[in-house]
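To assess whether the prediction recovers the assembly geometry, we first specified each molecular entity separately, as shown.
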Amino acid sequence: MLRRFLDLADLSDDRLEAVLARARRLERSRTSPALAGKVVGLVFMNPSLRTLASMQAGVAQLGGSTFTISPGAGSWKLETRPGAVMDGDAAEHIREAIPVLGQYADALAVRCFARGVDLEEDLADGVIRAMAELSPVPFVNLESAAAHPCQALGDWKTLDDLEVPRRGGRFVLSWVWHPRGLPFAVPASTVAMAARRGMHVTVLRPDGYALPEPVMTRARALAAASGGEVVETADREAALAGAHVVYAKSWAAPSRYGQTGESELRAGLRHWRVEESWFAPAAPGAKFMHCLPVRRNVKVTDEVLDGPRSVVVRQAGNRLHAQKALLLEMLTEEGA
Amino acid sequence: MLRRFLDLADLSDDRLEAVLARARRLERSRTSPALAGKVVGLVFMNPSLRTLASMQAGVAQLGGSTFTISPGAGSWKLETRPGAVMDGDAAEHIREAIPVLGQYADALAVRCFARGVDLEEDLADGVIRAMAELSPVPFVNLESAAAHPCQALGDWKTLDDLEVPRRGGRFVLSWVWHPRGLPFAVPASTVAMAARRGMHVTVLRPDGYALPEPVMTRARALAAASGGEVVETADREAALAGAHVVYAKSWAAPSRYGQTGESELRAGLRHWRVEESWFAPAAPGAKFMHCLPVRRNVKVTDEVLDGPRSVVVRQAGNRLHAQKALLLEMLTEEGA
Amino acid sequence: MLRRFLDLADLSDDRLEAVLARARRLERSRTSPALAGKVVGLVFMNPSLRTLASMQAGVAQLGGSTFTISPGAGSWKLETRPGAVMDGDAAEHIREAIPVLGQYADALAVRCFARGVDLEEDLADGVIRAMAELSPVPFVNLESAAAHPCQALGDWKTLDDLEVPRRGGRFVLSWVWHPRGLPFAVPASTVAMAARRGMHVTVLRPDGYALPEPVMTRARALAAASGGEVVETADREAALAGAHVVYAKSWAAPSRYGQTGESELRAGLRHWRVEESWFAPAAPGAKFMHCLPVRRNVKVTDEVLDGPRSVVVRQAGNRLHAQKALLLEMLTEEGA
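The predicted structure of the complete assembly is given in tokenized form:
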């Protein structure tokens, strides 16, 4: 049985297909008693709307229950550093918190964003890995410093639903402007997902915003195994040519990650905002994707979001079905 | 089946009576599996005690589940303005949030108080109406800028429980002092409820605190249809003469709504506080009502709240029964 | 049937043994429908991790539901003082809040820490007692100004699990340094629990940190009844000699309770931190206990917490079993 879901890579190809098939069945038939008597503990160290609501709703629809702990807001602020002398704000360490909560629950699911100070540290995803190690029960990553695998799983299903071809499908991950320098969890998981799906993936971004080398290396290896391809460019026209999907996301400039100068670099890039005109060279009926939340008229115009290209609400809907399928895989015999 | 409950007016007379009858049955028999497998999504953009607890408890008693989203506290702050360029605090727009949450739930119920800047805007109740339009599932108003229909529904039941006469019952809505200038959701819903119930309604308030004209016009129309009456006065003795009920509530001066000068106008009115002596001209056994929370010894004295006139706890109890009846009306065949 | 659990003393010896026996059964068999249809209302006026999670999980495992109200964070700030003129921050009084919530729930469970201003007032535990009086349904103390009985109940079970002898068991409650002056709920409940269990209890603390006289008087009376003993000392070697258990906890200097000078008194005491070397004179296999959250390397070293002596995670696990047993005692016929 799957014990940890920290990254989409934790699902073998066979298991991934089985989870996606189950997600499709759960979309048609929402409720069952499969998790009756089971409790899933949710720990949110950062804000959430979709993940919080879909986990609570999904477990309930399967007959189970959840509890939610918000460190720093209702619960003690958690220390994550090994060996810390805890005379500051944090009253509790994950070394106690996770094993304790794991005694109350049949699974734990945790959101813990990047610290945003040291790029290498964040890409290593040490905090979520440490928490998973500490957990006595199955453990789900609800977005960590370097990965958002539930999003990737739902997005894979959305691409299947839309019949975007695996082999030959053209997927553009486009950087867009955002008031803050954001971490790499979503772009890293998205590019890896699309590459593993066998698509032709283009990372479209301004100079200075190339994805970190470990993220690209990994995506290229996945593409090599699946018959896909991963390229990078700052040329929008070329990137969009024949595209089936434009997936918008913002991220920090890797060279200035966690530094005050990062915002100056971004200052001249507000025109990196998805507009209807971007789609001129794309395939007919090309879709717009985004993981949400999305800042309207900052990352993408109302026209695109409210038009027929946008599948962002459907993406969010698939979070529910995908996560329920994943939990059944992790918590039931039938899923094993 | 009822799809939206934004205002008590959304219930026809027949449906209102059916919901009240069902609420009485649910008071005697609290639990059933009527909502088994159903999820109600709660969105609280403002604080709550009664509404939050009674919705969670009520759905659970009917075999269903809830999730709770608090924008700005655990979830992303929500933008409500159409066309906004979202480069400020709010990371997510209701245009995404509501359709997304509606995919996870069988009904949504939302609290979103008045912005308190523009009276006309708040009375139009555009934000809750926009959210209801965006919802793919039945939608309940848990207090908006201009209406608190669950409170009105529960209060109607309380008046029935107390055998306050419909035709001929004398209902006084009295303004009371409060440290802040409050919005019109509760007074507007209360005066409309009492007028529709056919009572003789007196709005007792100091000069400068007449309810906004649209609120009074609507209440008078409801009274005309039901055989009731709605009058306004600043004369307490006259207002209280023969009263069966005094319902205390504070609200801002409409002429200075959202303005800094509003508090100066209120400064001399701290004596507008309900005291036992107020009831001298009232009917024997006249009752004291309030929607809660109530500031003791500011809006009303301990003597009244702790004495036999006060039915404020019973009012709050009826919130549970009324909301459960409403949800069954909106979510089950039997309720249709 | 037990209606209030404000202190371990509310359980007679027979009932205490029955609850402990039931807790052991629940540890082996976690789920049952015993609380089906029941709702437990949780009110947290202060942060929580274990208590919040274990109450939610425990009630769910027994087939019931919970709701959670957090005054001041999502719900109105609550006034607790009788007769207050409420023109400040608090919008609601416990005199309304508790009876109202009690109408929605089959039991209420409340956390309300010490105010930390007046020692006598806090030791009298008036606020939680007032809330219990106001509750129309069974009421559980989830840590008040002066008591943490759910912790004491779980700790008793942990001591039983570890086969620490009742008569003759040597229990050391050791003061440890903490950045703030903490209240007496846990040390008072712990010393009373250990004394009632019949153990030889030593309170080890620096000069100026003797537990308040009412706490010690009560513990000595319990020891007298059970055949135990309670002593105090500042001599660590003597205290630890033959100890079976060291239970670490910090508390304020009673003589400077709520005063600014309290921190100066504590300043020189950072070496009061449990280390492996402390256990040299203890019994072989002596255990380390703590109620959690614990500040690592401030109250106790990593070496102790991560070593075989530490039973802190097990203690927290027993909170779940003990509280479930308690709720069955309070809410079911079988428990009566």
